[in-house]
TrEMBL record:
Organism: Ignelater luminosus (Cucubano)
Reverse transcriptase domain: residues covered: 116-194
InterPro entries linked to this entry: DNA/RNA_pol_sf, RT_dom
Protein name, as recorded: Reverse transcriptase domain-containing protein
Example of a GO biological process term: DNA biosynthetic process
Pfam families for this protein: RVT_1
Matching PANTHER family: REVERSE TRANSCRIPTASES
Highest taxon above the source species: Eukaryota
Amino acid sequence: MGPWARDNKQKADLFAESLAEILRLNQMDEENDLQHIEDHIYEYIPLVTPHEVDSEIRTNLNSKNALGFHLITGAILKQLCRKGVSLLTYLFNATLRLSCIPDIWKVAESYSDCFENLLLKQLKSLIEEKHLIPDYQFGFRQKYSTIDQIYRITDILIERPFEKKRYMHCLVLDFSQAFDNVWHEELVHKLNKMLP
């Protein structure tokens, strides 16, 4: 065990050293993770099948959405015959192949909702299959929560220092929708004032 920190400067220095050690480990992981992502960034996204399109329309598309520019609602799409689903599948796959989403879909809510949901499923599958999200990231992932991150922090920041007979303090905050609700300009101003 090291010497006791007697004043605020010594406490801040010890805290900074501790954080630097922890963050240095994460940065190494982050660099490897970024390289792994870059290696797979142009990975082929599988095309959708008529069955996937039909299933998405019937189970997830909102039947009550308002009439858009094209006057086609989710309820109308749910009435598509097999030929209509095949044509919509062809359209979605052309969009994937060309990597270009039609501008008209910005006002054609039914099409864009369906396509976005299908694309999200494809991306999630690819991300999980290729392990593109680091194991220590818990936000925006299904079946992971703040509690899982707390268990991880408990292991890394509390149990390991105890094994070496060191002290560790940890503060964990979870603000629901914090970024959405914060005054961004004031946050940037305060961060600029706080940082050297």
